Description:
AA/rel_permease1; mainly alpha
Amino acid sequence: MNHKWRVPFNAVYLTSFIGGIFCLINLGSTFGFNIVVSLTLLALLSTYMISIGCVLRKRILKEDLPPARWSLGRLGLPVNAFAFCYSFFVIVFSCFPTELPVGLDTANWAPAVWAGVLLIALAAYIMHGRSHYTAPVLFVEGRKAAGVGLQST
């Protein structure tokens, strides 16, 4: 962690390098590229659905949202509902295979990999994260408790 810039440059470099390697998959296999794209869609849209779903729930129950720099006003509820439904639609269709008939070599394995990663993440959280994780909300000015620092491993 670079404390001057407050950016973990080593992590940024590593993920950029790995992302670049994944981009090379298309050169060797279109099928492999389709799985990477499907897996990326599943991962991104599932996390978007979680955050959009939480905001949508608060809007439906008419609970207060934290202050923001800008707001959609009355259009916030329909825009969030559309985004949630569209994300669900894309997630469902990104799980389909790209060709028929479906065999072991033509199946879309992205949903299985996605579920496996979710299970591994859940197990890691249960075994380690529950006792060592510091929620980001604890760092918000005005809510930060005395003595709360960056989380440790």
